[in-house]
Amino acid sequence: MSIQRRGKVLKLNGVIGVEDAEIIYAQFEQQLFNKIDLSGCEHLHSAILQLIVAFKIPIHKYPPASTLTEWLRSSVLLSQSH
Amino acid sequence: MNALLQQFINESRDFLQSISELLLQLEQSPQDQQIIVELFRSVHTLKGNSGLFEFTAMTKVLHAAEDLMDKVRDSRLAFSAELADQLLDSMDFVADLLDRVAANDYQNDAHMARAAQEAAKLRQFLASAQPSTPVQAASNNAAHEDIAKTDGLADFLAQLPTLVQQAISQFGDGYLLVNYQPEAECFFKGEDPFYLMQQLTDVAWSAALPTTNLVRDPYDCYQSQLDYLAVTRLSMAQLTEHFRYVTEQVRFFSLCPATQDSPISQAEVATVHNLDPAFVEILQTQQLILDQQMANNGPQGIVVAVYRTLSALQLQIPRQTPPLQPDANAPTLLAWVRQVLAQSESHDAVTEVVAADIVSESPSDIAEPNAEHDGVGDARFGRRAEDSAAAKVLKVEQSKIDRLMDLIGEIVVAKNALPYLANKAEDQFGNREMSREIKAQYAVINRIVEEMQDAIMQVRMMPVSFIFQRFPRLVRDIARKLGKEVELQIHGEQTEADKSIIESLADPLIHILRNSLDHGLETVEEREAAGKSASGLLRIRASQEADRVVIVIEDDGRGIDPSIIKRKAWEKNLITEEQLEKLTDQEAIQLIFAAGFSTAAQVTDLSGRGVGMDVVKTAVLRVGGTVQLSSEVGKGTRLSLSLPLSMAVTNVMVVGSDQQIFGIPMDLIVETVRLPISAVRHIKQQMTTILRGRIIPLRSLNHLLGIEKPQLLNDEQEYALLVVKSHGEVLGLIVDDFFEVIDIILKPLPGELGKMPFYAGSALLGDGSVLLILNPQEFS
Predict the structure, then answer these.
(1) How many Å lie between the alpha carbon of A39 and the closest alpha carbon of chain B?
(2) Which residue among B208, B477, B480 sits closest to A71, beta carbon to beta carbon?
(3) For residue A51, what is the domain's CATH number?
(4) Which residues from B are below 8 Å from A79, CB to CB?
(5) What is the per-residue pLDDT for B184?
(6) Which domain holds residue A74?
(7) Closest CA to B491 of B557, B553, B533, B546
(8) Tell me, what's the ipTM?
(9) What are the distances in angstroms from CA B69 to CA B19, B133, B420, B611?
(10) Distance from CA of B528 to the nearest CA of A (A)
(11) Using the 8-state DSSP alphabet, how is residue B747 labeled?
């Protein structure tokens, strides 16, 4: 399963495609989770990144891939300064 | 070849066919907006489909065609015959590629150059399109428009948040700032801007920013709302290559401190922007062709072909280049190509590759002596879409098949007249010889007709995978929305049944799956608490049993609790208090099929509003199927649908009453018995009997039909009793006599007669008489 929820943490594994955006958004809206764990994540589709940036979803653990982490860190930093 | 690819090829051929038809229609009435929209949609879908496979050459051409149609649709470009010609040519090229794909002979790289050429020709028309009107521009997001107005880095930076400005200001000479603003609809084109940005190398700093500070309400997951920024050491040419599919959405700024205020000179940008490596490749190809033509003094047709190619490319090349002269000869053309190439930065990188490509092709191939040669490779690509190799699969309208089936049905009935005729020849005319010959002929015709019937049934058969294939996605989406984990197992997708049966099953099955997911399976927490595995199991199994298709849907969820069902049914006045006491558990769970029954405490958008299960049952009964439900609390639920393979031929038993004959569907007949008159008991006004220890209510067919005559008894004073199933109950029907069992084509009664539920329909018999088929569901 690429999306798992344990308690209030949503864990995203592997490659998360655009079709998962609506699902993640639905769960976020219902407050089923309040932070995300990306430690097993290889790639996020733009639509997922957009969710994280737009709703300032706290990242519990960053992904291992450095490029992805760089992007996330700087984007999250900017979104929080808004 | 995999099924998806096969489907893509078939569909694409259809699309190409309809595109060329639409283009031709549009030439007749260029103002017809409906055709334009339809055309755009076809090209768009075709492009999207091609993107599923690695057919970049095809996608490239279709992308250009789509952009072109987009402009035409927005009335920014007038539709013209030239435009139609070019589109048709491009579609021929796509059709040719498709043929190659079908023949397993497709090599993407070999067609890229030609694809670029086609795309360039299409984009040539785009150049003459009017820019979008101010109203349209305003509807784009504001930030986008602001940037469009400015060219300078300083202006661009000024509108970015301070943090971003600070971050960027650390970088200086040798760095380029990339700003990618994907269009809002880009996800629908299969684009992933974030992925594209991450693929950039030599990145010193990067971030994604929301295009606006406000989250749009309602938030749409499928609209791109981010701007991407990156500072990189890559060269302009590398960046142009990287963003070649989205050039119009990307801006580059040089971070060189000395010239920070002015962006890269317009000319330089233009060169880099326009000299796509694919162009360079084409130019180099032309250069080599010219070299060879001059060296071997080859045919003049080649020069003409090169001229046409170059003039098509000309508009895409920076304005500084001198225009091509129409009467140019080989040396002047060569000089022109060299001049253009000299301006290109990415020249050297691809020279060797192209040279290798050309050398590997035999020179005679290139210098093919052909006086009317009007374009490189035109002999291969110039075919119209209509000429494409005949497809192996024939698509036929269903109505035609239905008509054929009706006719075959009639011949089945007509051939049944032959035995009557044989009997008549013998009995009436005393010609036994003739009778025998008719019977021999009948045997031959009978065999052929049965094969025909079998063949037409095969045509209408389709595998259940037709509806099963959408389940994995459906189950996955629903499970995610509910936050449940489900493993879906599908078995026997290849089981076949008649098309109408398969189609009528789609909706009921979706209802069932939704119910299982919503009410049946528990959440991970509940499952773990119950000592089950975290992920639930949903199994769908299709199989053929004799002349029926059986579909079983099982889950290992919480099962259906009969006591809850009984209580709910009683609360909703679906059962009386007496029934509440009497119902067995097995009978109780069947109540979920009752209309207006829903046990879900909370009505969700997933399982509807409790209309699900009775709709399921009705739909299955309508096609002559049955539903069986069994469930064990805490262990799971199992639903079994049994459906006929085909609805075309019905097996009926002919019975007689008051010198008329009627048919009763065999699948509803339990048994036929001779019942002594003494065994009939009267309880109040009702006739009953005890058969094998069970009380069976009796009905007289004459009485049901309103005929004022008692049923006939045979010589032993026995009734002819037909035991039939009616609404899950067993019922005895007294008739005058039983006759044979025959296959008939059941035709619904027309018009007002169709509203009489007592009759299921009518059928024509071999002797030309009409047989009315009764519907035992209405007997009670």
Answers:
(1) 18
(2) B208
(3) 3.30.750
(4) 209-210
(5) 84
(6) 2-80
(7) B553
(8) 0.94
(9) 11, 17, 66, 45
(10) 13
(11) B
pLDDT (tens digit, 9 = 90+) per residue, B232-290? 888 888 888 888 888 888 888 887 654 444 444 444 444 444 566 677 777 788 888 88
**Spatial separation of the C-alpha atoms in residues A8 and B315, rounded to whole Å:** 58
Q: Using an 8 Å CB-CB cutoff, list chain B residues near A82.
A: 161, 210, 213
Q: What is the mean pLDDT of residues B198-202?
A: 86
Place of tokens 């990618």: B180
Average pLDDT rounded to a whole number, residues B201-217? 79
Looking at CA atoms only, how far is residue B513 from chain A in angstroms? 19
Long-range Cβ contacts of B651-654 (<8 Å, 24+ apart): B651/B741, B651/B742, B651/B743, B652/B741, B652/B742, B652/B743, B652/B744, B652/B763, B652/B771, B652/B773, B653/B722, B653/B738, B653/B739, B653/B740, B653/B741, B654/B738, B654/B739, B654/B740, B654/B741, B654/B742, B654/B771
Phi/psi of residue B344, each to 5°?
-85, 135
Under 8 Å CB-to-CB from B225, ≥6 apart: which residues? A50, A54, B184, B210, B211, B212, B216
Closest CA to B228 of B177, B179, B185: B179
CA atoms within 13 A on the CB side of B411: 16
pLDDT given for residue B542 in this prediction? 92
* Structural domain total, chain A: 1
Interface A-B, measured as beta-carbon pairs within 8 A, has a size of 97
Q: Over 70: is that where the pLDDT of B631 sits? A: yes
- B616 versus B148: the higher-pLDDT residue is B616
Burial of B265 per CB tally in 10 Å (0-12, 13-18, 19+): exposed
DSSP label of B518: I
3-state SS string over B90-125?
A: HHHHHHHHHHHHHCCCCCHHHHHHHHHHHHHHHHHH
Whether the CB of B182 is below 8 Å from some CB of chain A: the reply is yes
Given pLDDT bands bounded at 50, 70 and 90, which one contains residue B149? very low
pLDDT digits (tens, 9 = 90+) for B319-348: 556 666 666 677 777 877 777 777 664 444
| Residue B544 β-bridge partners | B549
User: Which residues in chain A are contacts of B485 at CB distance < 8 A?
Assistant: 1, 4
